[in-house]
Amino acid sequence: MRRTLRLLHTSDVHIGEGSRADLRLRGLRRVVDVALDRSVDALLIAGDLFDESRVPDEQIDEAMAELARLDLPTVVTCGNHDALGSPTIYDRVALSDAGTHIRFAAEPEGEYFVFEGIDLAVWSRSMVVHDPDNLPLDGYAPHPGDHWRVVLAHGHHVDDATDESHRSSRISAADIAALECDFVALGHWHRFFDASTGNVPAFYSGSPSESGGSFASANHITLSVEHGALVERIPLGDPP
Ligand SMILES: [Mn+2]
């Protein structure tokens, strides 16, 4: 029987964002603190960890120092601000330099990160270009092992794919409903949002450092055989 798993889910950290660079770093620090305080089993970062390709070196170094404080499996996918298309921040940054616990989804066709010790399989498809042809859930197939199946994706949720088919990186309700998985961790919207459809729990976490604080949050997810996915929105307020 699969063990109960506790995950922390964040997105849209936007390290290096111009005039808000310090706020953004404090947001990352808060997420790392919460992950360590709550002793979660894994951390998921659902895109836009970095704000752009030209983030100053000192901001990168501070972000890497925060990621290095984590002592737990951490899976990072990229978003439209830190996509893999040139120029990309990931020509300058290897996240694994912060430690082997940091796993970066760099495969445009999608890939699994399997953590046997905690019965977890995380799937993500890397974003190369944020455009209408990019479909973040495309190519998903359920992992064959007996693991918790978690999908990590960065994009724009639409109720009906035909209504807003011009939008870039669409994630439609129908696509979510068709996933055979236990949880979908979403990024791109800077606020908490429940996009669950059918039997599939899917949530945006919001950014950890949204200005004004009222929207700043992270998600704490408990996956258990008894209850499925239970999601707690953790308000983060204004980072200290
Ligand atoms: Mn985004």
Written description of the protein model:
This protein is α/β, with parallel strands linked by helices. 47% of the residues are buried. The chain has one domain: Metallo-dependent phosphatases (Purple Acid Phosphatase, chain A, domain 2, 4-Layer Sandwich), CATH 3.60.21.10. The model has no long low-confidence stretch (mean pLDDT 95). The protein has three helices and 14 strands. Helix 1 links the parallel strand 1 and strand 2. Helix content is 15%, strand content 29%. The strands form three sheets. It has a six-stranded mixed sheet, covered by helices on one side. It has a six-stranded mixed sheet with strand order 5-6-7-10-12-11, with no helix packed on it. It has a two-stranded parallel sheet with strand order 8-9. It binds manganese (II) ion. Manganese (II) ion is lined by residues 47-48, 79-81, 154, 188.
- Bound molecule types: manganese (II) ion
* Total domain count: 1
Q: What does the largest sheet look like?
A: 6 strands, mixed
What percent of the residues sit in helical stretches (DSSP H or I)? Answer: 10-25%
Order of helices and strands: EHEHEEEEEEEHEEEEE
Radius of gyration: 16 Å
Which CATH class applies here?
Alpha Beta
Number of helices: 3
Spell out the CATH superfamily: Metallo-dependent phosphatases
Q: Quickly give the structural class.
A: alpha/beta
How many extended strands?
14
